Amino acid sequence: MRAGVLYMFNDSTQKIPSWAVALAECQGARRSLKAGRPHCFEIILKGQLLQLAAPDEYVASEWLQALLQTASGVSIIFAKFF
Fold this sequence. Notes:
This protein is α+β, with helices and mostly antiparallel strands and about 80 residues long. The chain has one helix spanning about 55-70, and strands at about 5-10, 20, 25-30, 40-45, 50-55.
C-alpha cells in the first residue's frame, strides 16, 4: 500500500501493478471461513469482495487490523507484510 492505495503485482519483479484500489473504498474486512486455503480474509469494497491469503496467522491478523482501521477512518502506517 502506498498513499491509501492497495496495489497487486503478479510477481516481485513486476514494475507496473496489475490491479489497484483506493482503500477509501474499503467498507470492512473479515475472515474468509469458506476459503479452501488457510489464513484467508476478505476486503469488502463497495459491493465487491476481494479475497486474500496471508502466509501465516500473525500476518493475516495484522492485515485485518490495518484494514479495519482504514475502513473506520483511523490513520495508520501500513508495513510490507508479504
